[in-house]
TrEMBL record:
Occurrences of domain PABS (ranges): 5-241
Gene Ontology CC entries for this record: cytosol
GO molecular function: spermidine synthase activity
Catalytic-site annotation from UniProt: 161
Family of this protein: Belongs to the spermidine/spermine synthase family.
GO biological process, one term: spermidine biosynthetic process
Keywords: Polyamine biosynthesis, Transferase
Protein name, entry field: Spermidine/spermine synthase
Domain of life, source organism: Eukaryota
Database matches in Pfam families: Spermine_synt_N, Spermine_synth
Organism the protein comes from: Tribonema minus
C-alpha cells in the first residue's frame, strides 16, 4: 500500500517520473480481489477515494468531471438512446449519469470485478446512487466475451469506463474489442471509451484512433479536466457507425437535469472537441469528422 507518513502516492504505472499524492485521514478498506488491489480511504480534502492497483479511480471531490463528460457526450450526441451498455464503471458513476436520461429504457452494465461495486456501495460513494435503478442489469464477467455474446446490434450507446490498458483492462483497448462493440451497436449507434491523457499518451491515443479508423464511420477525440488524474486531464475516444457530428449535441438537458449537472453543458460538449495545437496536429490526421 503506497501510504507513507499519512500521504497516499500513486504507483508510477503509465506516467514514469511523476506522482500525485493525497493526504490520508483514514484507510477504510484494503483487500486484493480476484483481479486487482482495491483500496478505499478518506482523504483530507478530496472526500473518499477509490484506488485500483495503486492508481486513483475516483475521488468524491472531482469525479463528476469525468462521469458527466464520458456519459453525456455520447448520450446527448445520440438523438434518442434507448439501450445503453456500460463496460466497467464499477464505482457506479457512469450508471448514475446514464440513469438521468429518461429516454433510456434498458441499461446493461458489465463490470468484471464485483468487489469494486461492493465497496462503492458499502462506503456510500457519491457515484454509487443508481444501482437500484429498475432499468439496470448488472453482470460480472469479462466484457470482451460479454459484448461478443450479447451485442447483436442492440445498443444505441456503449460507454467504456475502463482503467488504464494494463491488467484486467488491457483487452478493452485492442482493435478486436472495438470491432465487437461496432457489431453490438444499433444503426447510428455511438461508442465512447476512456481515452488516456494528451500530455502523457499522445502516441497511444493516435494508435487507438488509427486502429479504429476502419471500424467507425465517425471518429473523434474529446477531453475533460480532472485534477486527480495524471497531468489533470483525461480524454475520450468517441465513434459512431453513422456520419454524425459527434461534437454537437443532438439533444440538450432539460431544465431539471441541467440544474443537477456540475460540469457538462451543451457548450462544454462542443468545446471538449477543441484540442490544443500540439494534440490537434496528431489527432486531426486520424480522426473522421463530419459537420
Amino acid at each position: 500500500m503506497s501510504i507513507t507518513n499519512g500521504w497516499f502516492s500513486e504507483v508510477e504505472a503509465m506516467w514514469p517520473g511523476q506522482k500525485f499524492s493525497l493526504q490520508v485521514e483514514k484507510v477504510l478498506f484494503h483487500e486484493k480481489s480476484d483481479f486487482q488491489d482495491v483500496l478505499v480511504f478518506q482523504s483530507a480534502t478530496y472526500g473518499k477515494v477509490l484506488v485500483l492497483d495503486g492508481v486513483i479511480q475516483v475521488t468524491e471531490r472531482d469525479e463528476f468531471a469525468y462521469q458527466e463528460m464520458l456519459t453525456h457526450i455520447p448520450c446527448f450526441a445520440h438523438p434518442h438512446p434507448k439501450r445503453v451498455l456500460i463496460v466497467g464503471g464499477g464505482d457506479g458513476g457512469i450508471l448514475r449519469e446514464v440513469a438521468r436520461h429518461a429516454c433510456v429504457e434498458n441499461i446493461d452494465m458489465c463490470e468484471i470485478d464485483p468487489m469494486v461495486c461492493d465497496v462503492s456501495k458499502k462506503f456510500e460513494f457519491s457515484t454509487a446512487t443508481a444501482f437500484g435503478d429498475p432499468r439496470l442489469r448488472l453482470v460480472h464477467e469479462d466484457a470482451a466475451e460479454f459484448v461478443k455474446r450479447e451485442g447483436n446490434g442492440q445498443y444505441d450507446v456503449i460507454i467504456v469506463d475502463s482503467s488504464d490498458p494494463v491488467g484486467p483492462a488491457e483487452t478493452l483497448f485492442k482493435p478486436e474489442f472495438f470491432l465487437s462493440m461496432k457489431n453490438a451497436l444499433s444503426p447510428g449507434g455511438i461508442v465512447a471509451t476512456q481515452g488516456e491523457c494528451l500530455w502523457l499518451h499522445l502516441k497511444l491515443i493516435r494508435g487507438v484512433l488509427e486502429s479504429c479508423a476502419s471500424t467507425f464511420t465517425s471518429l473523434e477525440y474529446a477531453f475533460t479536466t480532472m485534477p486527480t488524474y495524471p497531468s489533470g486531464q483525461i480524454g475520450f475516444v468517441v465513434g459512431s457507425t453513422a456520419e454524425r457530428d459527434l461534437s454537437t449535441p443532438a439533444r440538450e438537458p432539460d431544465a431539471a437535469m441541467a440544474q443537477d449537472l456540475r460540469y457538462y453543458s451543451p457548450a462544454v460538449h462542443r468545446s471538449a472537441f477543441v484540442l490544443p495545437a500540439f494534440a490537434e496536429r496528431e489527432v486531426s490526421a486520424v480522426r473522421k469528422r463530419f459537420s
